[in-house]
Write a structure and sequence with these properties.
Largest sheet of chain A: 5 strands, mixed
Structural class of chain A: alpha+beta
Strand content of chain A: 15-25%
Number of domains of chain B: 1
Number of strands of chain B: 8
Number of helices of chain A: 13
Largest interface: A-B, 30 and 23 residues
Shape of chain A: globular
Oligomer: heterodimer
Strand content of chain B: over 45%
Order of helices and strands of chain B: EEEEEEEE
Number of helices of chain B: 0
Strand order of the largest sheet of chain A: 5-6-1-7-8
Distance between the termini of chain B: 7 Å
Helix content of chain B: under 10%
Helix content of chain A: 25-40%
Order of helices and strands of chain A: EHEEHHEHEEHEHEHHHEHEEHEEHH
Radius of gyration of chain A: 24 Å
Chain lengths: ~425, ~80
């Protein structure tokens, strides 16, 4: 593959290898070279990330600790340190912005860099990839490695970093594109999940390039009207809709929070407290961004059963109390619980800036607004949950916000938390 | 496994290019010479700014934290084998 894709657009995709586990190994040299599995916290049983040594033994993200120990008896389980990972991502973001002005964090450990306007400063993309790798090692530590993919589109750049070996730089030129699309398996194509891959396999398609030889009607029968359009673009190496940038749309559209308990929960007090805790976090985030929402959702999952409900309101919700009352008294209590709860989730959607909303005239609402403002002020100064309901007084049982690998709340985090 | 300690400690160090580098800490009247700072992380909870240093001393790993508001040092966690 040549050094430079001969096209005006040039994207660099950086993917840190085994991010959570690598950072844990970086901060603790005792763990380097050993199989490490990251758990969400002490007592959890789901491996949310694995080091390259653990992956070599067959340990995969999402597998149970018991299964992981069978595959890899020497596995060392370490609880996650989400704030540490977010701090590292923040530093990476600042590092990337020191190279190019146009940077987008795609997830906690992945970023797209638009090299197009900087090709005079960095005429050799391969050397730029090497430079990025070196600077990441200097910033986060010598144990941290990353894959770099460079191509004319974000899709191909991401595919390139997926297929390249650990710690390598892969440049895909236009001359290489057809061969690259023909040989990249669907598991390395962003957006093509196992279900879609299975449906494509039924019509004999195992790579993006083969889509050129499938007529529209056959493809539509297999994948439906949405995917036919997206897959046609992807088969030419162009970005599908879900890789298009969304920054121009302004504010977030929805804020949600889910939490999996340590075990099945029958206790009504704990269920109530957990729903209140999650609702408090959601409303705090929405308020901090100056938004309000009118679509309230809740779901509860047991081991196999689940229940969900939602309400679309004619007015916008801005307070924890009104959202919690709706969730707990109107939605949860209208359902007769038939199973113990393992997973909780609440969400507030159809968000709109508070400045665009007519405020209610009711004195009771304004009283609640003053309370919420005082709580937000205390949280801004002394930390979240400094002021909290009496049912959440036990600080050890408070569920605090956490960063996820997908960085679904990146707009909130990038605008509000800068350590 | 990291063992939670959460006890206040005294720390001595140097400033290198405007960045504080801890060199040793005193915990339970015993001095621990820091061999390497392997990682630093800045976190924020409300208006409270914290800097966490991951350090090694005599082959063990420690997480020490500096509260930038109260200017207090805390030994947060120690790595224990097994």
């Amino acid at each position: 593959m040549r050094d430079r894709p001969d096209t005006a657009e040039l994207w660099v995709h950086v993917d840190i290898n085994s991010y959570f586990a690598t950072l844990v190994q970086q901060e603790n040299p005792v763990l380097r070279g050993k199989p490490v599995g990251i758990l969400k916290s002490v007592g959890r049983t789901c491996v949310i990330a694995a080091s390259k040594e653990a992956k070599a033994c067959g340990v995969e993200t999402g597998c149970r600790l018991q299964e992981a120990k069978k595959l890899c008896p020497n596995l060392i389980a370490v609880p996650a340190a989400f704030e540490l990972y977010w701090s590292a991502t923040h530093r990476l973001h600042a590092l990337f912005q020191s190279f190019v002005p146009d940077v987008e964090l795609f997830s906690l450990d992945e970023a797209f860099l638009n090299l197009s306007p900087c090709t005079r400063i960095y005429p050799n993309p391969y050397e730029f990839g090497r430079l990025i790798q070196q600077k990441i090692r200097e910033t986060l530590g010598e144990w941290v490695t990353c894959n770099v993919g460079i191509a004319h589109s974000r899709l191909v750049a991401k595919m390139a970093s997926e297929v390249s070996g650990k710690g390598s730089v892969t440049v895909v030129t236009k001359d290489d594109l057809l061969s690259f699309l023909a040989h990249t398996p669907f598991k390395d194509v962003c957006g093509v999940g196992r279900g879609l891959e299975r449906r494509l396999n039924t019509i004999g398609v195992t790579s993006l390039l083969q889509l050129h030889f499938i007529p529209d009607d056959a493809l539509e029968r297999a994948v439906g009207p949405f995917w036919i359009r997206e897959l046609r673009k992807m088969s030419c190496g162009e970005d599908p809709a879900f890789l298009h940038r969304v920054e121009t749309e302004g504010h977030m559209k929805s804020v949600g929070r889910t939490m999996t308990g340590y075990g099945l929960c029958h206790d009504e007090t704990v269920i109530r407290r957990t729903l209140l805790n999650l609702t408090t976090e959601v409303v705090m985030k929405v308020r901090t961004m100056g938004l309000a929402g009118r679509y309230v959702g809740v779901f509860l999952e047991g081991r196999e059963q689940s229940w969900a409900d939602h309400r679309t309101l004619p007015y916008y919700i801005q307070h924890t109390k009104e959202m919690f009352q709706l969730i707990y008294q109107h939605m949860y209590h209208s359902w007769t619980r038939t199973f113990p709860i393992l997973r909780f989730g609440v969400s507030l959607s159809h968000l709109k800036p508070q400045s665009d909303i007519q405020q209610p005239l009711l004195p009771e609402w304004h009283k609640q607004e003053r309370i919420e403002r005082a709580i937000t002020t205390a949280a801004t100064k002394f930390g979240l949950f400094t002021v909290r309901p009496a049912t959440m007084l036990d600080s050890d049982s408070v569920i605090r916000p956490e960063v996820t690998g997908y960085l679904g709340d990146k707009k909130y985090r990038m605008t509000t938390s800068s350590p | 496994m990291y063992q939670t300690i959460s006890e206040h400690i005294a720390v001595a160090g140097v400033y290198d290019k405007s960045f504080f580098v801890p060199k040793k800490f005193l915990w339970h009247r015993k001095s621990y010479l820091i061999e390497r700072v392997t990682f630093t992380a800045d976190t924020k909870d409300g208006g409270v700014f914290l800097r966490m240093y991951s350090v090694t001393s005599q082959g063990n790993a420690y997480r020490i934290q500096f509260n930038r508001t109260t200017e207090r040092w805390t030994l947060m966690e120690v790595w224990c084998e097994g």
